[in-house]
Recover the amino acids of this structure.
């Protein structure tokens, strides 16, 4: 029989709200892989009420491994669907190759999904675009090949499909600037340059609202974040405004780089990457509400927010913060309270998992409704790889990933989407996954109504 240590005191009720939330910069575990989502530099396309997110897989380093696809109906809970392009033995998709920033648009005339991407060697000396096609948005794509569009260098790319079906390649041409090139009717090639910005920006994305085109882009600072900029025009061929900040100046776009901008419900969402250049698989996603009014764009920084697929976004609100080391919790099989200088209360619970299955049982988590909600798990992981834990909420288990944190004493966040029952009897348990040690747990942030 397992030996348990029950730390007794008066239980504190922690009230949760009915909300699935986006938490920028957190570990985001995908169903189907139990790994942090690997869709870096990507974009989203919506088909029949489902969102499909395609991006770069950097699980095992910086070189090409695959272009992954994930699906979701709510933009919070994502399921791995498969690889759209996979590693080949040679060629553009072979070992030691660079395949970046995949974007997908649908051609209504040919009933074909078309993907464009940046293709390069490891020294970034080729500067080409690649094209692939599929009859299914999240199926296997057929790679057609690579080239320099109109004979120009092309590194970071984006795609834009206008209201009338005309599509454009957005391309960073290092010698000349940022290009908007019109695609052929089948979207498989480039016909001519619609506009050339002499300024040098990369990671381009276009969004159109009320007849105004917004072009977003990043300055050229490598993997390091910077204050990304935007410019506007009422005509892709016409005069564009001066480039301006859309996030608070000096914040480096809240430590992110533009990858995509899209409509969700009645709101607009900015998608950015927070790159970890020394360990790309640990790069996270900065998705934030973007307010567009006239020709003005303002990025709203939020630690957590609620997207709506049919209405406007809302704030995640306040949270309660039950501590892992609270005396109401149960520690068993070697799990114990440890010192953590950066944690709340200077303590966390460690030795979770392992062959002894060290277990933390957090009790008295309350909810005002029976609902699925997003709980933030504050943790420490001093390794350079992901750790994992089996997380059981009211008897239902899932595997949660935990990216490396800055150091063993600085908490990071992993998001837990789980069903809470109405009342104050909810229990959340952290235990071993495949007999490996999990993270140290600092506390939970449970949404408060």
């Amino acid at each position: 029989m397992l030996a348990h240590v029950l730390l007794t005191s008066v239980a504190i009720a922690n009230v949760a709200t009915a909300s699935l939330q986006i938490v920028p910069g957190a570990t985001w575990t995908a169903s189907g892989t139990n790994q942090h989502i690997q869709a870096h530099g990507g974009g989203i396309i919506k088909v029949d009420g489902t969102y499909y997110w395609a991006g770069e897989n950097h699980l095992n380093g910086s070189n090409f491994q695959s272009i992954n696809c994930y699906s979701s109906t709510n933009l919070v809970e994502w399921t791995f669907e498969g690889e759209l392009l996979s590693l080949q033995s040679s060629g553009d998709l072979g070992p030691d190759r660079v395949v970046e920033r995949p974007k997908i648009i649908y051609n209504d005339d040919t009933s074909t999904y078309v993907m464009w991407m940046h293709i390069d060697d490891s020294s970034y000396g080729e500067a080409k675009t690649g094209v692939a096609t599929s009859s299914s948005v999240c199926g296997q794509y057929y790679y057609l090949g690579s080239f320099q569009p109109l004979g120009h260098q092309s590194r970071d790319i984006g795609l834009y499909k206008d209201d009338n079906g005309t599509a454009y390649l957005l391309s960073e041409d290092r010698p000349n600037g940022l290009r908007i090139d019109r695609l052929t009717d089948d979207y498989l090639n480039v016909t001519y340059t619609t506009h050339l910005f002499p300024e040098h920006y990369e990671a381009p994305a276009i969004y159109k609202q009320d007849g105004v085109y917004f072009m977003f882009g990043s300055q050229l600072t490598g993997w390091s974040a910077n204050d990304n900029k935007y410019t506007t025009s009422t005509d892709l061929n016409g005069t564009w405004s001066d480039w301006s900040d859309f996030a608070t100046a000096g914040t480096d776009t809240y430590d992110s780089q533009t990858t995509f901008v899209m409509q969700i419900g009645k709101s607009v969402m900015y998608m950015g990457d927070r790159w970890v250049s020394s360990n790309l698989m640990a790069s996270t996603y900065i998705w934030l509400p973007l307010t567009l009014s006239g020709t003005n764009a303002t990025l709203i920084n939020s630690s957590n927010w609620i997207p709506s697929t049919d209405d406007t976004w809302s704030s995640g609100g306040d949270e309660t913060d039950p501590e892992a080391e609270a005396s109401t919790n149960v520690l068993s099989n070697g799990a114990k309270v440890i010192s953590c200088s950066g944690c709340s209360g200077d303590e966390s619970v460690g030795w979770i998992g392992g062959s002894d299955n060290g277990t933390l049982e957090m009790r008295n988590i309350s909810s005002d409704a029976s609902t699925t909600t997003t709980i933030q798990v504050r943790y420490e992981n001093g390794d350079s790889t992901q750790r994992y834990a089996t997380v059981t909420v009211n008897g239902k288990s899932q595997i949660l990933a935990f990216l490396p944190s800055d150091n063993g004493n600085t908490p990071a966040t992993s998001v837990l989407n789980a069903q809470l029952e109405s009342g104050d009897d909810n229990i959340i348990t952290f235990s071993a996954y495949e007999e490996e040690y999990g993270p140290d747990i600092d506390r939970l942030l449970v949404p408060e109504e």
